[in-house]
Write a structure and sequence with these properties.
Umud Fragment, subunit A; 10 strands; 268 residues; 434 Repressor (Amino-terminal Domain); disordered N terminus; alpha+beta; 2 domains
């Protein structure tokens, strides 16, 4: 069976839904009857699509709700994402989210294909810490103009997440400036203290507090987590009751800094 994306792009979403129904040899009344079975199974009448409503949808006179799109995905054997994509570009939210000048640091998703065309200057850190007695591996700095999609192939573990550094967050500036994207590997405890030969070797952590997120070097002093900013940053050392007021989300293992802003001007 052809996917919705295989339909003619000149057709509206309703017409493409009609094509899917015809491929299955179903009438609008048969789809309506099936929708009642789905609604009964889920105990929610929102999943019902009446014959008259389906005719309106297929004539592009009505936009179905998310519940009715779910029903159509079940009836036509398509993923819900495929059905919704007939009406919305599902990659746009992530793309436009990154275009906004966000003031606060927060986790982000980097799944959209369009995001993979964005260019960043990327620093990647490798190396082991000394908590297991192993010697530190020398830090490697790789400078490259890479699409963000490449980042996904550098570490396929499910524990990897991403964060966006807010435009007012200068905690690790100039090492990690506002607007940077950081790759975070899940780690809920700080590494054991060690002697570091340079600032890139020292672990940087992504921290969640009651007031938001930030990334920084960290130390534990008694029952306090100390957030240690970069020496050139205007931000001061902050302390939080630990673990009551602060939680370690993970360790920052890669930093992507945009070379040009969205207007094509060099970033400072």
């Amino acid at each position: 069976m052809a996917s919705p994306s295989a339909s003619l792009e000149t057709h509206g979403p309703g017409q493409r839904l009609r094509s899917l129904r015809v491929q299955f040899g179903l009438t609008t009344r048969e789809v309506a009857d099936t929708s009642r079975i789905i609604a009964a199974e889920l105990n929610n009448a929102e999943y019902v699509i009446s014959h008259s409503r389906l005719v309106q949808i297929e004539n592009d006179q009505s936009t179905p709700s998310i519940y009715k799109l779910f029903t159509l995905s079940v009836v036509y054997g398509c993923s819900l994402k495929e059905i919704i994509s007939l009406y919305l570009n599902l990659e746009q939210p992530e793309y436009y989210h990154l275009k906004l000048q966000h003031q606060m640091t927060h986790p982000v998703s980097l799944e959209g294909e369009r995001l993979k065309e964005s260019k960043f200057q990327v620093h990647f850190r490798t190396g082991a810490n000394k908590e297991n007695g192993a010697a530190c591996v020398p830090v490697s700095e790789i400078w490259a103009d890479l699409p963000t999609g490449v980042i996904h192939h550098l570490n396929q573990r499910s524990s990897v997440r991403y964060g966006l550094i807010g435009m007012q967050d200068y905690t690790m500036h100039p090492l990690i400036g506002p607007g940077s994207i950081v790759q975070i590997e899940e780690q809920h405890k700080l590494s054991a203290p060690a002697v570091y030969t340079n600032e890139l070797e020292r672990p940087i952590y992504f921290i969640e507090t009651r007031s938001g997120f930030f990334c920084s070097w960290c130390e534990i002093w008694k029952n306090k987590l100390l957030s240690v900013p970069h020496p050139l940053s205007p931000v001061r050392v902050r302390e939080f009751n630990y673990p009551g007021e602060a939680e370690v989300v993970g360790r920052v293992t890669a930093v992507a800094t945009r070379l040009l802003d969205h207007e094509g001007r060099p970033c400072s």
